[in-house]
Structure formats: structure tokens, C-alpha cells
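Continuing the series of single-chain predictions for the mutant panel. This is the parent chain; the variants come on the following pages.
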Amino acid sequence: MAEKSRKRALPYTGRSLLLAVCALLLMTGLLARCYWLQCVEGDAYALVSESNAIQQRVLRPARGVIVDRRGVPLATNRPSFDVTFLPKGVPRDAFERIAGEIARMTKEDPEVLLELMRDARKRPFNSVLLVPDVSNRIVAAISERKYELPGILIEHRELRYYPLGPATAHLMGYIGEVSPKEIEEMTGYIRGDWVGRSGVELALEAQLAGVKGFENVEVDALGQIVRRLSVQPAVAGVRATLTVDADLQKWAHEAFGDSNGALVALEPKTGRILALYSAPAYDPNVFVDRKRSAERVKLFTDTSLPLFNRALQSLYSPGSTFKTVTMLAGLLTGKLKPTTTFSCGGEYAGMKCWKKGGHGTLSLVNAYQHSCNVYFYQAGERVWIEPLHEMAVALGLDQFPGFGLGPEEHGVVPTPEWERTHVKGPDGEHWGTGDVRNTAIGQGYVLVSPAQMARLVSSASAGGLRMRPSPVEQLEDGEGVVISRFTPEVQSQLNLSEEAIAALHKAMRLVVDAGTGRRAQIEGLSVGGKTGTAQSPSGLDHAWFICASPVEDPRIGMCVMLEDVGQHGGTVAAPIAKYVLERYARREGWISDTVVEKPRRARRARSEESSATGDGASAEQPASTGAPE
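Parent structure:
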């Protein structure tokens, strides 16, 4: 029996031995693997573990604040909270539930949120924006349920805000998110950054953008910050103080109503840009709010071109406002004197004056006052084209305005050489007296922008002093240290005699006191100006009014242009200038407190009722002769 038991025990012993050997091998393998992971590759895995728990996050700087010359905010930042998603460590089967919960709280489309979350898995360590600019109520609701919503974060950021909206749209411009291509081409920009697209926002982008900071933080499994390990603070953008006056911008916006056109105002003796308004305007806040995408699309497709800056980018015939150039060119060359007379019978060499019966015999000053075309046809012949062109350039025409606020148009004051180069066919080969006559009254090939005409009236009223225009008064860093300050710069100075300057001031004053610009009269204030009505390809005349005040010692020069209204400059443009100028003068204390009436809306006249007459001559009519309203 004992021998039989031993035989049975042998197989059992063999199995035990086999199992023991296998266990030993497994243990050896595990120990070897542990040794490899901990001793050989321990540093590498420690680094991976550390990177999972410690993250470097970008700290975006606040964009620089922009204020007007009196400290009124033009562009600021408001606090905003975004719902974002960090996919690292979140189970994929939880995505749909999380998207549904966020959609229920924010009223967003759950399918859109789910698609964003799935796409975020390509960059598991980068959060993706789900819902921008949510309310405090939503922030509180998500914070209360953060452990039920793994990967969901609330991130704070600053959103751009333009307090005056459309009133400063073309001046301030707008900002937009950087595109992937821009990120590749521009240094220091990452996904989600904003960049200036036009106006001051574009011109001062380098200063306003600021410098990014970084922080190293320890996070938990839900991506929530446990503690901050180190911080390199972001540096906010500079504070920009503009030369612009916010009140002038608001008054211009009020005065224009639904008319198209532009208003530009300068400080004649310094070059400071006091106002730049273009109509139709738009609300630049539309470009900051992601929820207003439909409004953005409408702006880009609107046939009235609200994004187009008419003050700087549009060119028009200036009409009779150009007679300022002809007058000064004649006075400077000595070919005209304030007392030089010509006779107007209503027509000259087949080219008509706006007044059918003519003005009779007029001096230079009175011809400017009543905007007599026939007089200036003859004055142009006497002065001729070279002095006209030289004077135009000296007053800021036939060149870029140089406002430094984005794209500008050059403008044209023709010469025989220009015509041969740019005009095809027989017209370009036969420069003649008719071309000079048309140029002398601001028609024919002459093209200007409202910004250029603001420079012209500012320079002319300041005795031929042409200053470099600037929109920026000063820039300050975060500590309030001024890093840049505006310094007036003279670009040119005409050698006008005291007699010539006095004659121009007198003529400009007569235009407003007893001529075509009577609707710009302001009691107690010396205002000098010039009206203009110019033909346009659309068939409806453009209305112009340029002015300066006080005319003998100008502190503001202004250009108002209404596009395609088919009415006289003295009828519709002068009242807008009066409204803005009178409110400004009252605020500045130049005149006593008075009631300022808002100008009546400029109604577009029918094309066949357009007032232009004859060979492209402007049809300017003084109020005393029954000009149409």
C-alpha cells in the first residue's frame, strides 16, 4: 500500500514543481519590468507624470484702452467668461452626456458642442471654446456641478467694447480673431488672439496688443487648478490718448442721420485730427460678439458699403470748394489781386455759370462769395495749370492725406502730363483751355477725398501753413509713464502776403455771412467757409461745405461732404457743419449758451432735378436768390 501511494504522489509533485517554476518566471519578469521602468526609464516617466499634473497656461494681456483728448473712453475692455473643454482624461463615452448638460444650461445646440468636443481630442492638452461670453448665472451653475462635468472649464477673458458704437466706427476700426495663416506669418500670436483690422485698432496694433504672460499650474484630474507654481505676468497694451474729440464724433453721427458721406475736422495750426466720421456707419461691437455673426455677414453684403471709409478712401469732384486753390494760386503768383475783376454774363466760351443772367462784374473776393463759375473760368485761364497744381499740392491735394489710419486714396489734380498718361483716346492727347477752366472750378478730372479737403481748408485758413496730421496725442505704459507724445510738424509753408491772407479770410467770411453758405451762420462766432456742388457718375450731385472758425485765427477746420444727394452744398452740407461747429463752440466757451437745432434730414433729389449745369460746372446758388431747399 505504501508503495502504491508513492506512485500516486509523483504526478502531484511534478505539477507543483511546474507551477512553481512558472510563478518564479513571472515574478522574475515582473521584477525585471519594474526595474526597467523605475531605474532605467524612471526619469522619462517621471517627466511625463509631471507634465500631466503641471501645465503651462498662456496669460493673455488686456488690450490697451483708447480715450479721446478729454479722457472719454473710445475703446475699453469688459470682463467675459467662456465655457471651454479640456479633453485630457475625460472618457469618450461621457462626451455626449456632458454636451447635453452644457446645451441644456446655455441653450446651445448639443450636436455642435459634441462635434467641438470630439474635435478637441486632436489636441488633448489644449482647451477648446464651447460657448463664449456666458452669463454669471451659467458660470455659477457650471461651477456647482464641476465634478459632474469633467473637462469643462470656465475661462476669464477681456472683450473689446466700443462705448460710442457707430459714432466712432471708421475712426476706431474693429478687431477680429487671427486666422491660421496670420498665426504663421505674425510673431507672438496664437489661436484665439485678436488683432486690429482697421482704423486706430490697426494703426496701433503693436502698441495695443500688449505682451503675453505664462503661468505654471498644478491641476487635478478634472483640469481644475490646484495651485500656481510660478507666474510671469502679462503686460497690458498701452493706453492711447487720441487727438480726437468724442463729442464731435457724436454730433456728426447725430447730424448725418441716414445720409451717406463724411465729416473730417482738424486743428489747423497743429495738425491734430479732431474728428473723422463716415456714413453710413456700423457698430464695431458686432465684430467682437460671436453671437452676432448674422449681423457681421450683413455688413459685408450691404450695398451701401458701411465698412467703407468715405473720409479717406472715396474720391469725388470737389466742385466750387476747389476755387480756394484757384484764388490762392492767383494771389501767390500775382496774376490775381483781391480787386481783380471779370465780367459774368451767365456764359463764357460755351461754358455756363449757375446763374443764368450772370453776376455782372465781380472782384475776386465777391466772385468767391457768390461762387461765380464764369469768373473762375477766366481766373483759371490767367493763372494756368502749373500754378494751380502747385497750390493744390501745397494745400494737401494730389497726394495721400497721411492720416495714418489705414488705406487712403491719393486724389487727382490733373496736369497735361497726367492726362496723357491716364486718359485714353483723343481727350488724353489734347490738353487745352477747357481742361484748365474745368480744373479751376473743381470739375473735370479733379478728384479729392473729404480728408484732403479738411487739410485744404485748415491750411488755407491758417495762411498756407500745412501741418502733418496725427490722430494720436500720447501713449502711456501700465505705470502711467508717457512713452510717446504728439509734436506738431510743419510740412510746408506758403509764402502768402498779409494782403492775400486777409482777402481769403474776408471771402470765406462773406460766403457764410452773405453768400452761398448762409445756413452755416452762428450768432457770435466768426465762421468762414466755401460751398460746393459737384456732378457725379451716379447722376446725383455731391454736396460740399468746408469751413474754419474763428476764421481770422482758426482753431478748427472742417469738411462736410454728402454723397449723391442731388442738392446744393449750401442747402444740406452747411447745416450739418453748423450743428457740429455750434455745439463745439458752445462747449468750448467761444459763444454763449444757446439752443442748437438739429439739421433737417438731407433728402435725395431726383437725378433729373440735379442742379449741375453746363460743362460739368458746379451749380452753386446763394440763399438770397431762392436756392432750392
